[in-house]
Amino acid sequence: GDSSGVANGWIDDFESGAPADSQGWQAFRDETSQSSIQCVPETGLAHSGTSALAIRFSVVPNSWATCTLFYDQNQDWRPAAGLYFQVHASKPGLAFDLITYGGALDAQEQYLLHLETSQAMVDGWVSMQFAWELLRRVEWEADAGTPFDPGQVVGMAFGIASLPEANNQGEIWPPVVVEV
């Protein structure tokens, strides 16, 4: 793709069946736990195209898992106002995070926004749109709470949050990730 990381405004278009980035989406999890995650483009369930990114997960308490797209060079997403995507879910109440990674490739900074699936996401597809300033630096890193700088993008992810007392288990399908 081009150096901006955005082809026609898309970060990744799962619906065409062709990832925009050759590295593709990778699953990461807390390997000291029983947590599991899969993230693969699948055909058969899509918002308007041929496929969607299916994220299947079971995250135990005090654990984590992510479905992540990393770039091998910094991207500049400043021309866009934020991130936009559609979500379908297997059930309401699934906790997940929208994560962006900034800074240097070898010193990543993590910014996130906590989200939760709704009944509307189970019944159909829900459009979600977030301005960059809603993504905030995580509390365990320096400069906690500062907003994301879209001029130095290292990658992005959908993170699966742990629940205090139970497994966070289910499926979400964010079929398209685009800049707005």
Description:
This protein has about 180 residues and is mainly beta. It is about 5% helix and about 50% strand. The chain contains one helix and 13 strands; from the N terminus they run ββββββββαβββββ. The strands form two sheets. Strands 1, 3, 4, 6, 9, 12 and 13 form a seven-stranded antiparallel beta sheet that branches. A six-stranded antiparallel beta sheet has the order 2-5-11-7-8-10, with no helix packed on it. It is globular and about 35 Å long. Mean pLDDT is about 80; it is low at about 1-10 and about 15-25.
Q: Based on the structure, what is the oligomeric state of the protein chains?
A: single chain
Query: What is the rounded Rg?
Result: 15 Å
The tally of helices reads 1
Ranges with pLDDT <50 over ≥5 residues? 1-8, 15-23
Q: Measure the end-to-end span.
A: 18 Å
How does the major sheet shape up? Answer: 7 strands, antiparallel
Report the β-strand fraction as a percent range: over 45%
Q: Mean pLDDT, as a whole number? A: 82
SSE pattern, N- to C-terminal: EEEEEEEEHEEEEE
Q: How helical, in percent, are the residues? A: under 10%
